[in-house]
Write a structure and sequence with these properties.
The structure is a single chain. The protein is 26% helix and 16% strand. It is built from 7 helices and 10 strands. Strands 2-1-5-3-4 form a 5-stranded mixed β-sheet, covered by helices on one side. It has a 3-stranded antiparallel β-sheet with strand order 6-7-10.
Length: 238
C-alpha cells in the first residue's frame, strides 16, 4: 500500500494511504479525545471532539472521518481546540439531564471523564432539562434517554457486529432518540437477541444492566474490536 507523508504537531510522520487522521494520530501516541469513535465500529464523526486544525484552512476537521493526504500539516492540541472541546462537553451536559451523583455509571462514565479532562465544573449555557422517559421494559437492560449523548455506538454495534439492527435513531436535533425497532418498548422487540453488546459499548449511563449496578457497572468498550479480531483472525483472547 502506498505511503503518504504528513506533519502532525510539527513532526513528520508516514501513514498508509486510506488511513484516517485519528488512526495516525493515535499511532503517534497522542491522546486524542473521542466519544462516538470506538475501535471495531464504523466512524460517525458525530461528537466532533477529535477535531484538528489543518494549516491553510479555517475549518476544524473531524480526524476520524478525514483521510490522510500528502503534505498535510495538522495540529491536534491548541488553545482554540481546547476551548472548542470544552464547549462541546458543556453542551452535551446542557442538552440532557446528566446528574452524575445519581447515575449508575458515576466514576465510570466517559462523558464524566471528559468533563474532568477539560475542567468542566460548571455550565455556561442554560440546561434544557427535557422531560425524557426511561425504557425499563426489558428483562435485563434499561435505556435512559436522559443520559444519552447520541453517539450511536449502540446502533452501530447492533447492526455491524450483532447483525440485527434492532436499534436506530429517530428524530432530529434535540428531539433525536435511540429507539428499538419501530419505536416500541424494548421488551416487545422481535429482533433483539438480548446479547447486551449495546449496553457494553454505551459510554454513559444511558444503557445499563438492571441488576446489581456495583457488580455489573464496568463496561467493555473493547468488545467490538475483540469480536471482529476473533472472527477475522481467530484470536479469541479473554
Amino acid at each position: 500500500m502506498a505511503l503518504v507523508t504528513l506533519t502532525i504537531d510539527n513532526r513528520k510522520v508516514s501513514a498508509e494511504e486510506g488511513q484516517n487522521l485519528l488512526q495516525v494520530i493515535r499511532e503517534q501516541g497522542i491522546d486524542m479525545p473521542t466519544l462516538c469513535h470506538l475501535d471495531g465500529l464504523s466512524e460517525r464523526g458525530g461528537c466532533r471532539l477529535c477535531v484538528v486544525e489543518e494549516e491553510g484552512s479555517s475549518k476544524l476537521l473531524a480526524s476520524c472521518v478525514t483521510a490522510v493526504r500528502e503534505n498535510m500539516r495538522v495540529t491536534t492540541g491548541s488553545d482554540r481546540l481546547f476551548r472548542y472541546r470544552r464547549m462541546l462537553v458543556e453542551l452535551l451536559f446542557a442538552e440532557r439531564n446528566h446528574v452524575c451523583s445519581v447515575c449508575v455509571m458515576n466514576r465510570r462514565c466517559e462523558l464524566q471523564s471528559l468533563a474532568l479532562r477539560f475542567g468542566v465544573d460548571h455550565l455556561r449555557y442554560d440546561p434544557l432539562y427535557p422531560r425524557l422517559s426511561t425504557d425499563v421494559s426489558h428483562e435485563k437492560y434499561a435505556l435512559d434517554h436522559n443520559r444519552c449523548v447520541l453517539c450511536a455506538r449502540c446502533v452501530r454495534v447492533c447492526d455491524e457486529v450483532e447483525g440485527v439492527h434492532t436499534l436506530d435513531m429517530m428524530g432530529r436535533g434535540v428531539s433525536c432518540r435511540v429507539i428499538a425497532d419501530l419505536n416500541q418498548p424494548w421488551a416487545t422487540s422481535r429482533t433483539c437477541t438480548n446479547c447486551g453488546k449495546c449496553v457494553q459499548v454505551c459510554p454513559t449511563g444511558a444503557m445499563y444492566i438492571k441488576e446489581t449496578f456495583s457488580a455489573h457497572g464496568e463496561k467493555r468498550p473493547d468488545l467490538p474490536k475483540r469480536i471482529r479480531d476473533g472472527r477475522e483472525k481467530h484470536t479469541w483472547g479473554g
